[in-house]
Amino acid sequence: MTHLFLADTVTPSEQDFSREAGKETAMAKDILGEAGLHFDELNKLRVLDPEVTQQTIELKEECKDFVDKIGQFQKIVGGLIELVDQLAKEAENEKMKAIGARNLLKSIAKQREAQQQQLQALIAEKKMQLERNSVLLVILI
């Protein structure tokens, strides 16, 4: 602890005492520093070096900022995942609609083929009936 003297003049003996006290304080700080004890800016005794304490506080703040940013990132990624899931569901629904439409077109094509075959069979039957009628008509004439 340093001493301040409030006097207009300082005698040589007081100057020597002040220098001696400063040396003793510095020596005490060195000895305590070697033992792992330090004084902070308020002259309180600390186990950690004030610089290490400051770095620890800065690291704690950086870690808090990092955790906050990770939280924000997780929210953004969560929203993105939800959006992608919704798009995947919509794509799956559209795919199912397309498959259903394709199957419907195939069944319509098969129905038309079957209808065409029925009509061709009906045409063939009508042609045979026309030939029979033509033969009968020729016989009658």
TrEMBL record:
Chain coiled-coil ranges: 105-132
InterPro entries documented for this protein: FT20
GO biological process, one term: cilium assembly
Keyword Coiled coil listed: yes
UniProt main location, coarse: other
Compartment(s): Cell projection, Cilium
One cellular-component annotation, GO: non-motile cilium
Keyword annotations from UniProtKB, A to Z: Cell projection, Coiled coil
Domain of life: Eukaryota
Name of protein: Intraflagellar transport 20
Species: Monodon monoceros (Narwhal)
